[in-house]
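Title: Comparing notes on inverse folding

I've been comparing how different people in this forum approach sequence design from structure. To keep things fair, I'm posting one structure and asking everyone to reply with a full sequence. Here's the target:
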């Protein structure tokens, strides 16, 4: 099992969805406003298949969510 991308080819980012090993193409920035200040943003990465699932999971909890293309986020 690859944890945090260990064992993955350099530069390859795996989707944050449990069990998914696909290459991530999106960045999902989020925070829990009950415990994090506005400058504290966590980041998940997602493949095209799971970007909707992961972002909706966070939005359902009323977390602010920003989805960007991973290439644009790295620039």
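Reply #1:
Here's my take.
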């Amino acid at each position: 099992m690859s944890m945090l991308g260990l064992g993955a080819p350099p530069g390859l980012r795996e989707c944050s969805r449990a069990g998914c090993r696909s290459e991530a193409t999106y960045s999902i920035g989020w925070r829990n406003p009950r415990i994090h200040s506005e400058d504290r943003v966590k980041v998940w990465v997602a493949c095209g298949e799971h970007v909707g699932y992961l972002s909706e999971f966070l939005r359902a909890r009323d977390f602010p969510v920003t989805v960007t293309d991973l290439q644009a986020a790295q620039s």
